[in-house]
Amino acid sequence: MTRAWFVTGTDTGVGKTVASVALLHALRSRGLRAVGMKPVASGCEWTDGGWRNEDALALIAASDPAPAYHDANPYALEHATAPQLAARDAGVAVALPVLQSAYARLASTAQAMVVEGAGGWLAPMGDGLDQSEFARAIGADVVLVVGLRLGCLSHARLSARAIEADGCRLAGWIGNTVDPDFDRPDDYLGLLRGALPAPCLGLLPHLPRKGSPAGGAWAAARLDLAALLD
Ligand SMILES: Nc1ncnc2c1ncn2[C@@H]1O[C@H](COP(=O)(O)OP(=O)(O)OP(=O)(O)O)[C@@H](O)[C@H]1O
Ligand SMILES: C[C@H](N)[C@H](N)CCCCCC(=O)O
Ligand SMILES: [Mg+2]
């Protein structure tokens, strides 16, 4: 059976893509066929192949086997804003069955699926479609990426509460050092460990250089998947 994790974050820009790429590398280093998905992406560039999103391309590059773009990212929306607005701008209605079909095609090739959400947990994927509905539909547990910055304690606790209230299971969380100058990261990690009802899967340090080819594997080595896989 294919295992699936839905990666959400304490906010947009907290490192969901960085963490999802790291998870894919970590799963693959365990010998698993692991495939990434970005169901709804707002913020795309036009190419000869159609609209392309940076997150989806990063997830595809970290996947083995490599998924077809339109399955990894069924909704590639131009404008870098809330998915609801980007979908309206594009004249598109984001539909759960379309997402489920694309997911099923990917999952048939994989032992592990890593699905990156859009923004934080309560940002809808489209009008009338919460991220929790898709996570439940595919049977995914949730991984919460906590961007370590002032305010993250409340955002992390709120996210954990909402995930459980939405009928999903929080399988673990990842601390991500988005801000290299953040004061007292170790103390914050202690607070988060005490406050969140799921294990910490690892701490991602501030990565040396964006786009470093070794970045995914380097970050993967900081993750302990035991709580996800055992
Ligand atoms: N540990 C880190 N070290 C250095 N830079 C990081 C780290 N984590 C994230 N970043 C940078 O911060 C920015 C936001 O990260 P990322 O794109 O992974 O966030 P996200 O949560 O996926 O955002 P979105 O909501 O847009 O999908 C990116 O430029 C990324 O390269
Ligand atoms: C465009 C951005 N980078 C993300 N992909 C989408 C962020 C959606 C945020 C919605 C909200 O305001 O909560
Ligand atoms: Mg992202």
From TrEMBL:
UniProt keyword Transport present: no
Catalytic activity: (7R,8S)-7,8-diammoniononanoate + CO2 + ATP = (4R,5S)-dethiobiotin + ADP + phosphate + 3 H(+)
Residues that, per the record, bind ATP: 13-18, 55, 116-119, 176-177, 205-207
Similarity-based family: Belongs to the dethiobiotin synthetase family.
Name of the protein described by the UniProt record: ATP-dependent dethiobiotin synthetase BioD
Subunit structure: Homodimer.
Cofactor(s) recorded in Swiss-Prot or TrEMBL: Mg(2+)
Binding site for substrate: 42
Job of this protein: Catalyzes a mechanistically unusual reaction, the ATP-dependent insertion of CO2 between the N7 and N8 nitrogen atoms of 7,8-diaminopelargonic acid (DAPA, also called 7,8-diammoniononanoate) to form a ureido ring.
Presence of keyword Nucleotide-binding: yes
Annotated binding of Mg(2+), by residue: 17, 55, 116
Segments passing through the bilayer: none
Enzyme Commission (EC) number: 6.3.3.3
Pathway(s) of this molecule: Cofactor biosynthesis; biotin biosynthesis; biotin from 7,8-diaminononanoate: step 1/2
Coarse class of the protein's main subcellular location: cytoplasm
UniProtKB keywords: ATP-binding, Biotin biosynthesis, Cytoplasm, Ligase, Magnesium, Metal-binding, Nucleotide-binding
Compartments, as annotated in UniProt: Cytoplasm
One MF term in the entry's GO annotations: dethiobiotin synthase activity
Superkingdom of origin organism: Bacteria
